[in-house]
């Protein structure tokens, strides 16, 4: 009974989310990620992300304990301004409480506010938790990256496209906005796609890999209180 009451009391304490504020938080983030991922990174890798894009890093705290974090970047990729989720970790006792979903949602919102047109990441093909989580948030599988990770496991590249502002040039090309005819039917010159939800946590691997397109298309991102996986970069 004592253990059950203690667990219930812990669950009642709200999770506090904070953005990255400076170098003094770096050891905390490094320890959390290195303890969970099988392929630890050097301090220079962390500084690369956190120095250039501190606004895309968030931490989740339960009282004074950091229980989760996300590290991202953004930049120009060909003709697209793209966001990228590099690392996501939620420690085991706190998974299934929507923490990973909240961390990803906060980072994605900042990317979108900064003008990103899409967000990508890689996740192990065997990491069902990550694939379900990102699927619930509107990501689709864009490519399969063979032997992407050092352990030889393939990865899926997942992608989320943001709806762009209405382009008047597209109206002219596709026949203008929808209108109703005399029978009350909707008539329009452009095709309507119905978004489909997908169901699957992950980290990036910088070594070269071969990839194959799987499919295109995009889903609208939507907030879901799902069972969060431990980390987004493909490790269980």
Automatic annotation (TrEMBL):
Keyword annotations from UniProtKB, A to Z: Acyltransferase, Transferase
Could you give a GO molecular-function term held by this entry? protein-N-terminal amino-acid acetyltransferase activity
The residue ranges of the N-acetyltransferase domain are 13-163
Q: Per its UniProt record, what InterPro entries does this chain match?
A: Acyl_CoA_acyltransferase, GNAT_dom, NAA30-like
Taxonomy, superkingdom:
Eukaryota
Q: Which Pfam families match?
A: Acetyltransf_1 (PF00583)
Q: Which GO terms describe its cellular component?
A: NatC complex
Q: Name the family the entry cites.
A: Belongs to the acetyltransferase family. MAK3 subfamily.
Instruction: Report the protein name in the record.
Output: N-acetyltransferase domain-containing protein
Native source organism of the sequence = Ceratopteris richardii
